[in-house]
TrEMBL record:
Provenance organism: Sulfurihydrogenibium azorense
Topology class, membrane: Peripheral membrane protein
UniProt signal peptide: none
Name of protein: FAD-dependent oxidoreductase
Localization in the cell: Cell inner membrane
Length: 380
């Protein structure tokens, strides 16, 4: 029987970071079990960046302002202690990623570049062009290999084993062979991502984002929390729902209706296209429902116009977005506006985490991190 001190279920950004931290204790046997190869995890599709108050662009930014923006963006439903902790820790984690080798985009003076993002009072989003998740995922995977983390790739976890409110292990299937295994573990960390794939008509999620970890924990008696809060990203490609990063608006893109208006002036005259995502998404749907979009039914859309940014900026800052638009919509953003509509994006609810500093659930030895976890920092 396989046996580990720490078993991480899921090999995305949160899972690999958890594995890397656990592997620093050299006396622990650490393994990551994943139904896909680690570099195929959905973190690789994350584009725009990570918010942290480094104040590299505007010295007025601070973790306190970041905390306020996040509390406000949660419609005051977020856990304010957890939000403060996250925003205070964020700069340290960005520098940690930098030291691990993540190639963030740079300002002319060499510091980490930051771009404006929705709901933020200052340019706060640290990014690597429009491939931020991709470079973070590959960097963390390389570091885990360096630290001798074991990987059980293409294994599917079915059940969590608990005895007297204490983690004992999991039941998993080796997908390639079909064999069922019981795996012992003293600590089990769920990092299985979200469930937005349930919105099958239009979503940004990989086909494997099916909420496995949440379902496993729920069946084992661990509560779920805030499951009604699902974030719809304002800009998904019309036909597929594939994400068009908020960075496109952060770089200066305009949302335009069929009357040629920058319609966000009606809904958020100060923030415009960089209002919080829920507000922008509702505004787009309102424009469509009131007849100011293009097309009909589920294929109706508005335009995201990047043409005024110029070819050089689009090619250097948004190269992946340009290629996705060409491949999936037949549109080159340098020449034409992009047809977009809100798309299911992020699961803000998840496995109930009782202690936001340790990620512990209500069961001893069971932890949850990343999108599958809920520490209530997002609110509504």
């Amino acid at each position: 029987m396989l046996s580990y001190d720490v078993l991480i279920v899921g090999a995305g950004g949160a899972g690999l970071m958890a594995a890397l931290e656990a592997s620093k204790a050299k006396d622990l046997r650490v393994a990551v079990i994943s139904k896909v190869y680690p570099t195929r995890s959905h973190t690789g599709a994350a584009q725009g960046g990570i918010n942290a108050a480094l104040a590299n662009v505007d010295p007025s930014d601070s973790p306190e302002v970041h905390t306020f923006d996040t509390v406000k963006g949660s419609d005051y439903l977020g856990d304010q202690d957890a939000i403060e902790f996250m925003c205070t820790e964020a700069p340290k984690r960005i520098y940690e990623l930098e030291h691990l080798g993540v190639p963030f985009s740079r300002l002319p003076d060499g510091r980490i570049a930051q771009r404006p993002f929705g709901g933020a009072g200052f340019p706060r989003t640290c990014y690597a062009a429009d491939k931020t998740g991709h470079v973070i995922l590959h960097t963390l995977y390389e570091q885990c290999l360096k630290n001798d983390v074991e990987f059980l790739n293409e294994w599917f976890v079915k059940e969590l084993i608990i005895d007297n409110n204490e983690a004992k292990g999991v039941i998993a299937i080796d997908i390639r062979s079909g064999e069922v295994h019981a795996i012992k573990a003293k600590a089990i960390i769920f990092a299985t991502g979200g469930y937005a794939r349930v919105y099958w008509v239009r979503n940004t999620n990989a086909i494997g984002s099916t909420g496995d970890g949440m379902a496993i924990c729920y069946r084992a008696g661990i509560p779920l929390k805030d499951m009604e809060f699902v974030q719809f990203h304002p800009t998904g490609l019309r036909s597929t729902g594939i994400l068009v990063t908020e960075g496109a608006r952060g770089e200066g893109g305009y949302l335009i209706n069929n009357k040629g208006e920058r319609f966000m002036a009606r809904y958020a005259p100060q923030k415009m296209e960089l209002a919080p995502r829920d507000l922008v998404a509702r505004s787009i749907e309102t424009e469509i429902l009131e007849g100011r979009g293009w097309g009909e039914g589920m294929m109706a859309y508005v335009h995201l116009d990047l043409r005024h940014l110029g070819a050089e900026k689009i090619k250097s800052r948004l190269p992946q977005i340009r290629q996705l638009c060409i491949d999936f919509e037949g549109v080159d953003p340098i020449e034409e506006p992009i047809p977009v509509r809100p798309t299911a994006h992020y699961s803000m609810g998840g496995i109930d985490v009782r202690d936001y500093k340790t990620s512990m659930t209500g069961v001893n030895g069971v932890f949850a991190v990343g999108e599958c976890a809920c520490v209530s920092v997002h609110g509504a």
